[in-house]
Amino acid sequence: MSDPCLDKLIKEAVTEQIKSFPVPDMDEEWELLQKRIYTEKKREAWIKRAAIAAAVFLGLTGILAGVYPVQAGNLKNAVIRLIDKRILGPMHNLVINTGASDRGDVPPDTVNIPKPLRTSSLEKAVEFAGRPFWIPAETPEGLELDEIEVTKEEGGVLSVRLLYRHNEKYYSIMETLIEKRGSKGILYDTDDSEVSKIKIGQSDAVLIINNKHGTYNLDWYLGDWSFSAFSNLGEKEIITISSSLIPTNAVGK
């Protein structure tokens, strides 16, 4: 049977010995982990546990490094990966401030979200897109192009949204690459709405009229692209405008 007093003395001695070891200089991987931990202020409890665990293991690896340097390095890297996976992994809303921009590199776990271009210039939008997209050839008198939003990534354009306005009236149309939008299909709520199937050119389309809000939604597909128009102009107007779409490289011809 062990002596409680002796066990306490041994525990205190080991604790003091670990605390006496200076923390070694942090390498780039450990520095990145530390910055990721301390930027998550909303989970201070998790951060404290991670910091304490990391400090203890660094102390142990400092002891081990004197005899087994390779094993000590492997242990430290394993601990870093474990903390990153078990503690930081679930923190989906983590704010990362690594200073990577100062070094010119990007952390491997940073998600690159495409930043859209918003402009009222058709020329700028086409130049940014790098390819033609569809625009209405016919619009009611007074209805003017107010904004174009183009979202793209390295693989090409993901979506283009055009907004036309005249006072309180508007017409908006968005074309989206189907594989980015999801499975091919149109979802709609039938509450306070009338749903009918029509034709836009040669394509089957679904027209949704919301009687409560006085809005009209029109959805159809063309090749690899889905189209969704939304307006408060009227049933005839949304069908006429959507049926007049032409590619931007055909404008003025």
Spans of at least 5 consecutive residues with low confidence: 87-106
- The ordered string of helix (H) and strand (E) elements is HHHHHEHEEEEHEEEEHE
- Main beta sheet strand tally, sense and closure: 8 strands, antiparallel
**Termini distance?**
97 Å
Look at the structure and give the mean pLDDT.
73
Number of helices: 8
The number of domains is: 2
Overall number of strands: 10
Radius of gyration: 30 Å
CATH topology annotation of the largest domain: Phosphorylase Kinase, domain 1
SS-based structural class?
A: alpha+beta
CATH architecture of the largest domain: 2-Layer Sandwich
Q: Give the overall shape.
A: elongated
Helix content: 25-40%
β-strand amount: 25-35%
- CATH uppermost class of the largest domain: Alpha Beta
Describe the 3D structure.
This protein is an alpha+beta fold. The chain folds into 2 domains: 4-103, no CATH class; 117-250, MucB/RseB, C-terminal domain (Phosphorylase Kinase, domain 1, 2-Layer Sandwich). Helix content is 38%, strand content 28%. The chain has 8 helices and 10 strands. The protein has helices spanning 4-20, 28-38, 44-65, 69-88, 100-103, 122-129, 178-181, 235-243, and strands spanning 117-119, 134-136, 144-153, 156-166, 169-177, 193-200, 203-210, 215-222, 225-231, 245-247. The strands form 2 sheets. The protein has an 8-stranded antiparallel beta sheet. The longest helix has 22 residues, at 44-65. It is elongated and about 95 Å long. The termini are far apart. The relative contact order is 0.09.
